[in-house]
């Protein structure tokens, strides 16, 4: 079965295989959904926005000094050290999720007071990774 999708104004034809015994229903139209897709190999790619790990709005000033994980994953490498002074977007920790490495960077300038994770530890979204002085 072939479906046609429109992403960023470009139409793509997609082959979909339906397993025997599965029920398939196609609606007349689907709601528009915004999807971020990676470009195909060899095509230019814009630099990704830094992962800040900043907590949601409305938190206290003390919690603003805590860098939180934006995703679930396993700590692959701890780069920052306690006592080290970091600038915004300096690398703190590298997480591995779904066989991909994600750099977690400092969301503020300051001295690292605590590293709250260790290599091999599983982290959840919103879990504190590091605390700044």
Q: What's the average pLDDT?
A: 77
| Helix content estimate | under 10%
Major sheet: 4 strands, antiparallel
**Percent of residues in β-strands:** 35-45%
Number of strands: 10
Rounded to an integer in angstroms, the radius of gyration calculated over CA atoms is: 20 Å
At CATH's second level, what is the architecture of the domain at 63-132? Beta Barrel
- Choose one word for the global shape: elongated
The end-to-end span amounts to 57 Å
Q: Strand arrangement, largest sheet?
A: 3-10-8-5
Q: What is the level 1 CATH name of the domain at 63-132? A: Mainly Beta
CATH superfamily membership of the domain at 63-132 = RNA polymerase II/Efflux pump adaptor protein, barrel-sandwich hybrid domain
* N-to-C series of helices and strands: EEEEEEEEEE
Q: Within the CATH hierarchy, at the fold level, what is the topology of the domain at 63-132?
A: OB fold (Dihydrolipoamide Acetyltransferase, E2P)
Annotation field: number of helices: 0
Low-confidence stretches: 32-38, 51-59
Write the layout of secondary structure elements.
Layout (H helix, E strand, L loop, with lengths): L1 E6 L2 E6 L50 E3 L4 E6 L6 E2 L4 E7 L2 E6 L4 E6 L6 E2 L4 E5 L1
Antiparallel strand pairs: 1-2, 3-10, 4-6, 4-9, 5-8, 6-7, 8-10
